[in-house]
């Protein structure tokens, strides 16, 4: 992420407007005749960044679209959106909800401003567009969006549970039968269950999501999902059934995070409404209420950290069917809600993304098997087994093996052995991390898949109480994560970099489970620092705006009365001390990134009061004009950059970004601009040695942070970068930093002319380096550069060092947003041609369309091919700045050029 210098803002805007006008007007002059434009069509119509969304509860949803064009330099002149209550009305020219009128703009973004949208209604919209020549495009295809519950009062259902307390282990089962007397037109299910739920209609699962609803502060906000269940119902007798898990709502295991003491903890509870619309127009609603029945069955224990236990001997046969006799089941208990906000879940669900077969299995005796899945992943396993009734089978999951070939969990169970104050190790009796247990019913081949947990693992140790026979075909890993759509890719002639990029992707996806987590096994926490440091890579690789907008809402819920936020979000109350502006900076850096990549300020608008209150809180905590308490460059290799310096820099950054937020929203930025200038002067006075061009202790992190955050006085920038270069040379191109340095060092070496040094660091194979992770055989990024012999600090699936892959996108392929014209409306293509690379390919499917940058060497030349989406413009840095419009452009460049314009 490049941070703006406020004094340059106005001039840069003027420059870009000038070039935008030139690029826009030139095609018009060359082709001034009007008519129809058949070379261009509108594509990818989305509402709230979703295709045909089913359950919105937003009063003013957003519309976006892209273009497919054979016309070089196509530019939208105006759009006209129409929204109707039926497709027929739309086609007849009767948009009874909203007509935007002709909006003269080139931006492919709009916000609904029509009549109030009603709960449950489906709406139809299309788009008419004219180009800069006055030509009309063919009217777009019709797209739809459907509302869920627009008001909390729309809920008629009641929260239900059973008569057990929160410490009772077996999961509650719920069921209700009903009769559909008429032919069904459609049916929608609106459902949530705390902590997790699986719901079935006539024995068939409703939806393909797992671990729903997403994790929130359950005291303040609960999410619900909407499912189209029309095909699961039938005329006549039907049954709706559910089983609930504990999830984050009712943590059972004991750990340093003490989620088991959360004030929201209760026995799992269900809320659901099944809305049936018949062909004759009648609507019937089946709600959760006191007419439901409850029992328990084979689901004996479930815990997000420890795992699931299921006894197949206790399962209730046929309980999901309409014909089951539930006369011996108990009536449910109606209970109270936990949060005032009950909102539709609009981020993608957690789903099974891939089935991963083992690459090897090793047998120990006649009852232990260790499976190697070949890659580190998150999820759970499906086990197929045949054995004697009552046989106990455990599946333990981990990332390492002992020298004997057995499973090693020492690197992930450390936080389940200490007390709350990080004191002496206190092993919790009879608690095993990441272990699922299954008791066989016997007599046939059985299948077991956990329902209410997930694990991080590469190896699975299966142990049985009695002999069983297993082969590689009997166990499959199911990779699950929030189903964000891939939008970016990178490859180059150095396969080590390709493997680092893949490992970063695998780590990132492994840590998306309704919140962005630090690791998927021992913590599963939404650490703010880890996420803000890797947000560029996350958004370049995945279409994750709705995911992060949800998490930004969690920040609002998390802020306490003083204005502080915790280091992990959500949190029930842990972590409000000593994390400071570097970690807390996520509340500024992530909304800024969403605006930069999508051109959308909704998160900024929502968070603005939270950010204001937070900066007021920091001001009350100042010492000598700044903040010095908190985390700095976490987990450095050797050199520790003074934390107080790093914290002061990020306190400065928070004010810089807040001033930009104010300007973006049309507010007065003066307070924050002045504070930022005060902090810059203070930092330079206290930490900068101008005679040696060194910040703080001159570490790689210290130099790079000052450069990227624009703290360095202009006349000293290159000297500070030269000192960074000297430091890197002194380590023989090995890194010597922690999380923060991994975000800034490569980018600053590249910016100031040291691309070869940056490349050598990125491609380094010996420790400490990213390449050494790959040479050690890892398929994900580790938490620490070097693993300790005690396995006490080394998760092998962290994404926090993943910014190296955003450097690949932004500096090798050269794909960048423009700070002054966000949302990839104007694109910066600035590749750097590292001498040891023969070719590079990068692409990013932005909100405005596909951006591609590819270069290859041809003798003493570099051939750069750039694809710019229709209706956008770009500046391409070759030996000079080239201004281009949408289309494909080829440049031939002197291979010896450093391309550092």
Structure description:
By secondary structure, the protein is of the alpha+beta class. A hairpin with a 3-residue loop joins strand 21 (299-303) and strand 22. Helix 12 (700-708) packs antiparallel against helix 13 (717-730), helix 12 (700-708) packs across helix 14 (739-751) and helix 14 (739-751) runs antiparallel to helix 15 (755-762). It is globular, with a radius of gyration of 28 Å. The two termini are 18 Å apart.
Helices and strands in order, then pairings?
Blueprint (H helix, E strand, L loop, with lengths): L8 H22 L5 E2 L2 E8 L14 E8 L6 E9 L2 H5 L6 E2 L3 E2 L4 E3 L10 E10 L4 E2 L5 E4 L13 E2 L10 E9 L3 E11 L1 E6 L2 E2 L15 E8 L7 E10 L23 E10 L4 E5 L5 E4 L2 E5 L3 E5 L18 E2 L1 E2 L6 E4 L5 E7 L3 E5 L3 E18 L6 E7 L1 E2 L5 E2 L26 E5 L6 E3 L6 E10 L10 E8 L2 E2 L1 E5 L2 H16 L17 H6 L1 H7 E2 L1 H14 L21 H5 L1 H13 L3 H19 L22 H22 L5 H18 E2 L4 E2 L4 H9 L8 H14 L8 H13 L3 H8 L7 H6 L27 H11 L1 E3 L8 E4 L9 E8 L2 E10 L2 E17 L3 E14 L7
Parallel strand pairs: 1-9, 16-25, 22-32, 42-45
Antiparallel strand pairs: 2-3, 3-7, 4-5, 4-6, 4-8, 8-10, 11-24, 12-17, 12-20, 13-16, 13-18, 14-15, 14-17, 18-19, 20-23, 21-22, 26-35, 27-28, 28-33, 28-34, 28-35, 29-32, 29-34, 30-31, 36-38, 37-43, 39-40, 41-42, 43-44, 44-45, 45-46
Helix pairs in contact: 3-17, 5-8, 5-17, 6-8, 6-9, 8-9, 9-10, 10-11, 12-13, 12-14, 14-15, 14-17
């Amino acid at each position: 992420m490049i941070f703006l210098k406020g004094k340059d803002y106005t001039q840069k805007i003027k420059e870009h407007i000038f070039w935008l006008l030139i690029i826009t007007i030139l095609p018009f002059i060359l082709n001034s005749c009007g008519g129809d434009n058949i070379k261009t069509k509108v594509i990818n119509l989305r509402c709230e960044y979703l295709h045909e969304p089913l359950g919105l509860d937003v009063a003013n949803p957003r519309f976006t679209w892209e273009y497919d064009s054979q016309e070089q330099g196509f530019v939208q002149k105006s759009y006209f959106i129409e929204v109707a209550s039926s497709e027929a009305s739309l086609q007849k020219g009767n948009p009874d909800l909203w007509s935007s009128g002709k909006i003269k703009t080139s931006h492919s973004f709009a916000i609904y401003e029509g009549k109030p949208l009603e709960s449950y209604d489906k709406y139809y919209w299309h788009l008419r567009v004219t180009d800069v020549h006055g030509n009309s495009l063919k009217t777009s295809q019709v797209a739809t969006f459907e509302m869920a519950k627009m008001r909390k009062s729309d809920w008629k259902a009641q929260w239900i549970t059973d008569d057990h307390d929160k410490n009772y282990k077996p999961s509650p089962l719920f069921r209700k039968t009903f009769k559909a007397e008429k032919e069904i037109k459609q049916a929608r299910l609106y459902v949530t269950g705390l902590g997790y739920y699986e719901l079935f209609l006539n024995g068939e699962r409703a939806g393909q999501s797992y671990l729903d609803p997403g994790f929130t502060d359950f005291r303040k906000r609960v999410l619900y999902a909407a499912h189209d269940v029309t095909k699961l119902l039938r005329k006549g007798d039907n049954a709706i059934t559910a089983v609930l898990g504990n999830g984050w709502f009712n943590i059972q295991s004991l750990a340093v995070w003490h989620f088991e003491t959360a004030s929201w903890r209760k026995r799992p509870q269900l809320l659901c409404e099944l809305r049936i619309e018949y062909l004759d127009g009648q609507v019937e609603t089946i709600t959760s209420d006191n007419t439901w029945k409850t029992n328990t069955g084979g689901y004996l224990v479930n815990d997000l950290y420890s795992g699931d236990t299921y006894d197949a001997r206790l399962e209730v046969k046929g309980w999901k069917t309409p014909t089951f006799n539930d006369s011996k089941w108990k009536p449910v208990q109606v209970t109270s809600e936990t949060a005032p906000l009950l909102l539709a879940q609009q981020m993608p669900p957690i789903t099974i993304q891939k089935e991963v077969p083992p690459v090897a299995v090793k047998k120990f005796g006649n009852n232990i098997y260790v499976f190697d899945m070949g890659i580190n992943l998150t999820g759970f396993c499906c086990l197929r087994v045949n054995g004697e009734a009552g046989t106990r089978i455990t599946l333990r999951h981990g990332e390492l093996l002992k020298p004997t070939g057995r499973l090693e969990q020492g690197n992930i169970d450390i936080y389940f052995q200490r007390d709350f104050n990080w004191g002496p190790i206190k092993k919790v009796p009879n608690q095993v991390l990441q272990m699922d247990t299954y008791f066989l019913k016997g007599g046939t081949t059985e299948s077991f898949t956990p329902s209410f947990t997930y694990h991080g693992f590469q190896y699975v140790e299966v142990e049985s109480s009695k002999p069983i026979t297993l082969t590689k075909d009997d166990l499959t890993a199911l990779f699950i994560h929030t189903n964000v759509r891939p939008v970016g890719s990178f490859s180059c002639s150095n396969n080590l970099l390709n493997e680092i990029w893949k490992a970063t992707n695998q780590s990132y996806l492994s840590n998306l489970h309704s919140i962005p987590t630090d690791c998927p096994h021992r913590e599963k926490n939404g650490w703010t620092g880890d996420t803000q440091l890797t947000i560029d890579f996350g958004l370049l690789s995945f279409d994750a705006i709705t995911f992060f907008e949800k998490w930004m809402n969690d920040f609002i819920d998390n802020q306490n009365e003083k204005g502080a936020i915790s280091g992990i979000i959500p949190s029930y109350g842990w972590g409000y001390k000593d994390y400071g502006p570097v970690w807390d900076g996520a509340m500024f850096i992530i909304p800024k990134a969403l605006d930069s990549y999508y051109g959308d300020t909704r998160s900024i608008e929502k968070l603005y009061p939270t950010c204001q209150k937070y900066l007021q809180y920091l001001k009350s905590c100042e010492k000598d004009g700044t903040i010095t308490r908190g985390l700095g460059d976490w987990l450095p290799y050797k050199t520790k950059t003074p934390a107080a310096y790093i914290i002061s820099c990020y306190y400065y950054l928070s004010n810089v970004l807040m001033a930009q937020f104010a300007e973006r929203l049309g507010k007065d930025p003066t307070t924050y601009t002045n504070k930022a200038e005060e902090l810059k002067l203070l930092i330079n006075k206290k930490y900068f040695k101008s005679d040696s061009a060194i910040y703080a202790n001159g570490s790689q992190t210290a130099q790079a942070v000052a450069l990227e955050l624009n703290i360095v006085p202009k006349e000293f920038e290159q000297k500070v970068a030269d000192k960074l270069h000297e430091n890197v040379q002194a380590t023989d191109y090995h890194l010597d930093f922690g999380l923060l340095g991994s975000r800034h060092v490569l980018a600053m070496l590249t910016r100031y002319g040291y691309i070869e040094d940056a490349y050598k660091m990125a491609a380094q194979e010996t420790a400490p380096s990213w390449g050494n992770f790959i040479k050690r055989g890892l398929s994900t990024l580790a938490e620490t550069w070097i693993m300790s012999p005690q396995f006490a600090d080394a998760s092998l699936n962290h994404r926090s060092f993943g910014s190296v892959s955003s450097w690949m996108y932004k500096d090798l392929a050269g794909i960048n947003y423009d700070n002054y014209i966000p949302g990839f409306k104007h694109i910066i293509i600035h590749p750097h041609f590292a001498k040891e690379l023969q070719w590079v390919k990068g692409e990013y499917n932005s909100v405005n369309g596909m951006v591609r940058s590819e270069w290859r060497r041809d003798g003493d030349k570099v051939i750069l091919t750039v694809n710019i989406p229709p209706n956008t413009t770009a500046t391409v840095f070759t030996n000079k700045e080239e201004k281009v419009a949408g289309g494909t452009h080829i440049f031939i460049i002197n291979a010896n050029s450093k391309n550092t314009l």
